[in-house]
Automatic annotation (TrEMBL):
It comes from Dinghuibacter silviterrae. Residues 52-179 form the ABC-2 type transporter transmembrane domain. The keyword Chaperone does not apply. The keyword Isomerase does not apply. Pfam families: ABC2_membrane_3. It comes from the Bacteria. GO terms for molecular function: ABC-type transporter activity. This is ABC-2 type transport system permease protein. Its main location: membrane.
Length: 241
């Protein structure tokens, strides 16, 4: 599995995909947090990164599909998947290696954003202070969200040899999982109890829960279930193909 992961990591960073994805992610967040008027945290009046943690999932919803879209699509298109399948690696190891490589790239994009914490800490004045527990919880939530989105993108990439189609399918799938159930729960037909359970099916519900600074085992179990489910589907797709 690690051999597949290292091969894909070299491909990510030897080409434009990994570097451009990380640069675009940091640039978008920087513009929205320090330049654009409506989301500028410098004008917010409080030592808070709430705007960042609200905006980051939407940026990741496009960033992660861009990273995962070629994981299997290029293998199908070029025929190199046959080399992988004849190697002494199981389907689970192949899928796990590719998933891990994409996840490491995404997490590498999150690391530089720790500068935002230092920046706000430096700018805070008076009695204002950062909610350290909330920030740690939010970063854990972002990491779990990245793991789930990456699993969805890995599965979508295994469905087609066209990387663009894989990108669109992955972005749509991540959007439905993140926001679709929450939007569906607001329909009047589901009011009176069913709306709460619909919200629980979405990633946003559990992400917001972890971001409060309380790491609930139910939220961790939810994210682990999503990751394992889509990796299982990817492995089944690989074996079927």
């Amino acid at each position: 599995m690690w051999s597949v992961c290292k091969k894909d990591l070299r491909q990510f960073f030897s080409g434009l995909t990994g570097n451009v994805a990380i640069i675009v992610f940091l640039l978008l967040n920087g513009l929205m947090l320090f330049v654009f008027r409506d989301s500028n945290i410098l004008d917010y009046g409080y030592a808070s990164l709430e705007n960042y943690f609200s905006l980051a999932p939407w940026v990741l919803l496009l960033l992660i599909p861009a990273i995962t879209m070629r994981l299997f699509a290029d293998e199908w298109r070029s025929g190199t998947i046959e080399i992988l399948r004849t190697s002494p690696l199981s389907g689970a190891q192949i899928v796990g290696g590719k998933y891990l490589s994409a996840l490491l790239v995404v997490l590498a994009a999150l690391l530089p954003t720790l500068v935002y914490v230092v920046t706000i800490k430096t700018l805070e004045a008076g009695n204002a202070s950062l909610d350290t527990g909330g920030i740690i919880g939010s970063y854990i939530g972002l990491a779990l969200l990245c793991a789930a989105f990456t699993a969805v993108g890995t599965w979508c990439s295994s469905l087609t040899a066209n990387a663009i189609v894989a990108f669109l399918a992955s972005a749509f799938g991540c959007f439905i999982l993140y926001s679709g159930f929450n939007s569906l729960s607001k329909l009047s037909q589901f009011s009176g109890g069913a709306d709460f359970y619909l919200q629980m099916l979405g990633i946003d519900f559990h992400y917001q829960s972890v971001s409060k600074g309380v790491l609930d085992s139910r939220d961790v179990l939810y994210f682990a279930s999503v990751v394992l489910f889509f990796l299982f589907l990817t492995q089944r797709r690989l074996l079927k193909k």
